[in-house]
């Protein structure tokens, strides 16, 4: 699998769709796989929700609960769930936006007979993220090779009117993909994934902070802000209709630079931890949500010092602060795949809080109250790990791991 798609919450269930090849572990036959969860940790996989055809793939997109039945696909009593996805022509001649709807709470989907609903005869026009704002639907969608995010509005999800474009700005990269426009009170954050051109290599996600005027996004500035300084957090978006209007984010935990070579079988790829997003000044804050008790993790504070999460003396991840720089070093926890194995982030002269959540094959770091995130796949048996603590570490707490003598 790759990108998370169509994230929505309805009647006690989180639905996760995902870019999926039902026939192999390589990219292809793009269809929407489907899984549901009540806690965002235990997922039940369901049958394919939207299938590719011989000539087209079902690329990334979003899903909404159409509470007012604006589309007419359901009733007000039983609102339709509407998926808005990109139909990609395998001959690469066109990408357009299409609908599929469900009247059984998101279990099965029917492709809309009037597809596509938005076709501007573009080859690189994809990844629609739709939300309900001020009495109408707003679509945020990428003009990938122009490094632009386009905004469209609709009363019914079927007829779309172009409002404005944003970009190019800050990091350009190879293509812009998978946008999401998220409201935090008066401020709005625009997520833009780009590939290649990430923080160090391959895929990465940047964000802009600004205003949504009702017709256009105006960024406060065009400074580069990375959502994640690791290699493995791409194409992430937020759930729609989440409880208490929480902004819950999931990313794809891999990188196009090596995704097709990661040696796992019979599956390939996972999502990041679910993270609640909030805004603190000009920084997006990521906080893991619902993390089960006893899940392997370690937290500490330091101004100069490091810890190791180690399977044995040769296989470990080292994390700490050195010379006012936060670092995550996976050079002894990686294989032959080409990828940078040390991330460094300038943090200045202060004591930093660091929390690391460890799963089999991945580590997700949150520092400075969640303003810094570093997500990496690792090839070390992290679930068998012990922590080794160096000088300069305080407030150490851990669970699900042992402490090295
Ligand atoms: C991002 C992406 C999307 C596209 C999908 C295809 O990873 O390239 O832009 O819709 O993957 O699988």
From TrEMBL:
Gene Ontology CC annotations of this record: cytoplasm
Keyword Repeat: no
SUPFAM superfamilies: Arabinanase/levansucrase/invertase, Concanavalin A-like lectins/glucanases
Protein name as catalogued: Unannotated protein
Ranges of residues in domain Glycosyl hydrolase family 32 N-terminal: 1-288
Annotated keywords: Glycosidase, Hydrolase
Pfam family, one: Glyco_hydro_32C
Family, per entry: Belongs to the glycosyl hydrolase 32 family.
Gene Ontology terms: biological process: sucrose catabolic process
Family matches, as InterPro entries: ConA-like_dom_sf, Glyco_hydro_32, Glyco_hydro_32_C, Glyco_hydro_32_N, Glyco_hydro_beta-prop_sf
Domain Glycosyl hydrolase family 32 C-terminal: 302-384
Molecular function GO terms recorded: sucrose alpha-glucosidase activity
CDD domains per UniProt: GH32_Inu-like
């Amino acid at each position: 699998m790759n990108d998370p798609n169509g994230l929505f919450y309805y009647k006690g269930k989180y639905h996760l769709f995902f870019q999926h090849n039902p026939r192999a572990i390589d990219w292809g036959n793009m269809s929407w796989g489907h899984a549901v969860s009540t806690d965002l940790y235990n997922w039940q996989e369901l049958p394919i929700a939207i299938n590719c055809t011989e000539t087209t793939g079902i690329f990334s997109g979003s899903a909404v609960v159409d509470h007012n039945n604006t589309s007419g696909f359901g009733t007000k009593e039983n609102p339709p769930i509407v998926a808005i996805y990109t139909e990609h022509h395998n001959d690469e001649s066109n990408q357009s936006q299409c609908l599929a709807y469900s009247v059984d709470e998101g279990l099965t989907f029917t492709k809309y007979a009037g597809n596509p609903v938005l076709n501007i005869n573009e080859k690189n026009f994809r990844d629609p993220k739709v939300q309900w704002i001020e009495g109408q639907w707003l679509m945020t969608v990428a003009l990938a090779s122009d490094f632009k995010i386009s905004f469209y509005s609709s009363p019914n999800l079927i007829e779309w009117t172009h409002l404005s474009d944003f970009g190019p700005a800050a990091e350009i990269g190879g293509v812009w993909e998978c946008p999401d426009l998220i409201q935090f009170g008066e401020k709005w954050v625009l997520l833009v994934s780009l590939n290649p051109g990430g923080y160090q290599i391959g895929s990465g996600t940047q964000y802009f902070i600004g205003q949504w005027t009702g017709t256009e996004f105006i960024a406060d500035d065009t400074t580069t802000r990375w959502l994640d300084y690791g290699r493995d957090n791409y194409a992430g978006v937020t759930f729609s209709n989440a409880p208490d209007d929480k902004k819950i984010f999931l990313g794809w935990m891999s990188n196009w630079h090596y995704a097709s070579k990661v040696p796992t079988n019979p599956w390939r790829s996972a999502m990041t931890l679910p993270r609640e997003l909030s805004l603190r000044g000009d920084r997006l804050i990521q906080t893991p949500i619902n993390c089960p008790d006893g899940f392997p993790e370690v937290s500490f504070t330091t101004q100069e010092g490091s810890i190791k999460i180690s399977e044995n003396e040769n296989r470990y991840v080292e994390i700490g602060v050195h010379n006012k720089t936060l670092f995550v070093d996976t050079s002894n926890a990686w294989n032959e795949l080409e990828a940078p194995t040390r991330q460094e982030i300038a943090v200045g002269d202060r004591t930093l809080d660091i929390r690391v959540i460890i799963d089999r094959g991945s580590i997700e770091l949150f520092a400075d109250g969640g303003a810094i995130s570093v997500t990496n796949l690792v090839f070390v048996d992290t679930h068998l790990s012990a922590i080794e603590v160096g000088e300069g570490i305080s407030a150490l707490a851990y669970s699900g791991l042992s402490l090295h003598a």
